[in-house]
Please model this.
Amino acid sequence: MLDPEVEARPWEQQLALDDVAHREQLAYLLERSGFYRAKLGAAGIEAAADAGGLEAIGRLPLTEKQELRATTTPDEPIGAHLCAAPEEIVRIYSTSGTTGTPSYIPLTAGDLDNWITGSARSYAASGVEPGQRIVSTYNAGPFAAGAALASFERIGLCHIPVGTGNTERLMRAIELLRPAAAVLTPSYAAHLVEWAAERGVDLPAASVERVLVAGEPGGGEPAFRAALEAGWGARVTEAMGIGDIGVSLWGECAAQDGMHLGARGFVHPELIDPATGAAVGMDDGASGELVLSHLRHRAAPLLRFRTRDHVVIRMSPCPCGRTGPRVRCIGRTDDMLIVRGVNVFPSAVREVVSGFAPDVSGHILVRPRDAGVKQEPPLPVRVELARDARPEEGLADAIRDRLRTALVVQTSVELVPWGTLQRSEYKSKLVEH
Ligand SMILES: [Zn+2]
Model:
């Protein structure tokens, strides 16, 4: 543990400390944020004392990404939630802007330091140790994920950045520099297993003992993870963050039973029902959309920010000794489809299909027939066969039956030959409308 005093602190004690920080953060927002003064004012909150403490946070309004975006103007390109003076800002990241124009994420020196501290705890949870080498495939570039790279030095690792999009260079770095760990997206980790097999490269014999995956859901799904672990001959653990709140906020330990909150003390987690916005208790086994609030952020703190990540909570004690909630991300609310009233996450479809290895490659593509979220059954799913596999009689039916049993969804399964579905060096597309 990087900070045993913090990471193993009883969760109730953490919440008591966070309660104080939350009240101070609210006062700061009311003083400095035009966005939150208006938003909280509309909810009848003029002073921090009106809001109550952390226990009452579920009564405060949620924040949506679009609301922040809507307040940007040419004069205020960051948005009305900016709290810090220009001279206090030391870095400005951009979001990837998949929905159009990028939005900006400013940080003070203290914010950036807290991001790195939380990220370092999350990555250290995987078991990587000072003195080891780690190869990374994220580009620092304009995106917040780049801030996570500084956490490797914080842990005491030797960091070998090779960036995205050059598999030859990555494999040469692994062969020659012999890193003990690699950090990449689960899609890219899966792609490299195939890449190595096609070239006769013995990936399990390589130096990498730990594969740290982040950037998209999937690294925690048992069948998908088992395939990655076999392909790499390494232990696979996942990490998760969200640009607007912080990088690698969560990180999994060797017990592989959900991600610990490395950013504890900086960020407060909650669950809501994504359909109604109602608060859901953080009980063992509960699931819902993750909502995060900054506790001691300065540049542009967010309150009850909807992450769109759909997670399951674990509250049972973890053998590693870290306390507090753990999460497993089961998909993005944005990717979710509703098939006759049943929520279906494409990554869950992939997980069920992966159970048919070695007959299938593990690549799937959901092809909804209707625009939007709501779908009429059967839901079309393309399933790629493994290399050299012949479509066996009854395989499509067996996959369809297991999807129906496991996910309560009626599908039509189309088997396609090896290599048909697109591979990714970054994030996979599992749905195509
Ligand atoms: Zn643990």
Observations:
- Residues 253, 255, 260, 318, 320, 322 surround zinc ion (CB under 6 Å).
- The first strand starts at residue 89 and ends at 94.
